[in-house]
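anyone seen this seq b4? input:
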Amino acid sequence: MSSRGGISYSQLSHKTVFLLDHTICMSEPDGVPIEIETSAKDKDNKDRSSKNPNAPYMNYLSFIPPISKSLWTSAVENTMNYARIVWDLFSEERLLRFVVNDGQNVVQLNNTWGTETQNTNFVSEGFANVGLPIKPVNSLQLGIQSAVETLSFVTEAQSAAMLQRKSKVSKNL
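predicted toks r here
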C-alpha cells in the first residue's frame, strides 16, 4: 500500500462511482438467451424427451420464443453483484455511489457517501424506483458531469485523514 505523508493511499482513494446509461438503447436484449428447464416426463414419471420422441407428449414450452434479459437488467444485475462483493469483503472501507443518466435527468440512487446507504437493499430499491429505460438518447454529458462531481465530495474517512495530515504538518512547523 503506497503512503504519502503517513496517510495511506486507500484512506484517500476508497470511492467508486458507477454511471449507468438509462437510455432507450439499454432496453435492447442482451443476446444471451435464458434457458428454461422443463420436465419432459409424463404422468407415469417416464422420460419421454429422449427415450421415445414419438410419444404423445407435448412440451408446451417449446412454443415460447427465445427470451433474454435487457441490457439494462444485465447492467443492474452485474453492478449489484459487484457492489455485494465489495461490501462483503471491505464492509465500510470501500464506498460506492450509483448515478443513473437517461440523457435528460440524472438520478443518484444513494446521494451520500454515508455508510447507511452502502447496502444492497437501499440500492436495489433505488434501481426499482428508476424503472425501465424509455427515454430517447440526448446526451450522457449530464451524467458524466454528475459522476465526476460525486467523486469530489469528501467522505468521513477522507476528512479524518486530512485532519490527521494537517495536525502532523502543524507539529512539524
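The mean pLDDT is 78. Strands lie at 3-4, 7-8, 15-21, 29-33, 68-70, 95-101, 106-108. kinda curious what u guys think
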